[in-house]
C-alpha cells in the first residue's frame, strides 16, 4: 500500500530555491521538504534548550538581587 499523493502549487521561485538545496540530483521535493521539516524540529528543540539555560541563568542572577551581573551573562 503506497501513500496517497497530492498536488500542491508552488511559486516558481520556491521551486528554484528547493532545487538549489538538493543533496543529490534525483532527490524529490517531498524528500527535500521532509528534510526541512526535520531541521525545523531540531532547531525548535535547540531553541528550547537555549531558553531553558537562559531562564536558569536569569534566576541565578536575579535570585541574588544583583542585577549588575546581567550585563556579563
Care to describe what's here?
The protein is an all-alpha fold and 73 residues long. The protein has one domain (12-72). 60% of the residues lie in helices and 0% in strands. It has two helices and no strands. It has helices at residues 12-20, 29-63. It is elongated. It starts with 11 loop residues before the first helix and ends in a 10-residue tail after the last helix.
Spell out the blueprint of helices and strands.
Layout: H1 12-20, H2 29-63
Distance between the terminal alpha carbons, to the nearest Å? 55 Å
Series of secondary-structure elements, N-terminal to C-terminal: HH
The number of helical runs is 2
> Which class do the helix and strand fractions yield?
mainly alpha
Which properties best describe this structure?
60% helix, 73 residues, mainly alpha
Short summary:
The chain is mainly alpha-helical. 60% of the residues lie in helices and 0% in strands.
